[in-house]
Amino acid sequence: MNVAIIPARGGSKRIPGKNIKNFAGKPIITYSIDAARKCRIFDRIIVSTDCDRIAEISQCAGAEVPFVRPSELSDDHTPTAPVLEQALRWLESEGCRVKYLCCIYPTAPFVRSEDLIKGYKLLIENNVSSVFSVTKFEFTIFRGLKINDEGFIEMFWPEHELARSQDLPQAYHDAGQFYWLQTEKFMDTKKLFSERALPVIIPRYLVQDIDTLEDWETAEILFEICKKQFLL
To answer: How far apart are CA 232 and CA 229, in angstroms?
Structure first.
């Protein structure tokens, strides 16, 4: 069985109602649900939430909300892995054996069904622990700067000061969209990715972290541009 789990607690502090806030015309969580439904590779699409309003909107969008997330897994500091573990244990108690799990974040309006399918194929064809979305840093991290204790600028890696950027390794960061997991391996490690993980590389123009209202506004502008250019 393939299951998508979308972790979406209530009580966001920096952006109130973040997981169901209107984004370009509809609640932001519905983009993740729509992408999962469009894939046609999931037996169940489940939203893990402690919020009645999130549950209502998610169900109207076509997802299941078969349980209420426990309060001890619904605070600001709860990482994703325990939320997924709780959902998997609930499914197991209901007699559902999940072989492959995909965690899709609820504030990922740029997530595409084709990328979810690509990740699924990479996971099963290569027998790896996980596959997740990444994107390139726009500038080489090996030229990164920091401000030291005296307030002066210095390089993290001064040995690369004279190196050409094209000669330095390409660096990537988590795109924050989805994580495909082999359930058995995940339950052993409790990690979203470990040593044997493969990437789905997402174009930078389809990646925007949304933590502040400024991030939100930037994401909406980028989203509208991508729609007009038929990139979404």
So the answer is: 8
Please say if the pLDDT value at position 12 is more than 90.
no
For 108, residues 6+ apart whose C-beta sits below 8 A from its C-beta are 31, 32, 176, 177, 178
Record: fold of 2-136+173-228: Spore Coat Polysaccharide Biosynthesis Protein SpsA; Chain A (3.90.550)
Beta carbons within 8 Å of 136's beta carbon, 6+ residues apart: 170, 171, 172, 201, 204
Q: Residue 210 above 90 pLDDT?
A: yes
Name the residue ranges covered by the structural domains of the chain: 2-136+173-228
CA–CA separation, 206 and 72 (whole Å): 33
Tokens linked to 186: 């995940």
Give the DSSP H or E segment for 188: helix 183-189
Query: 141: pLDDT confidence band, cut at 50, 70 and 90?
Result: very high
3-state class (DSSP) for residue 30: helix
CA nearest 44: which of 107, 9, 88, 109?
A: 88
> What letter would DSSP give residue 202?
P
**Consecutive H or E run containing 223:** helix 213-228
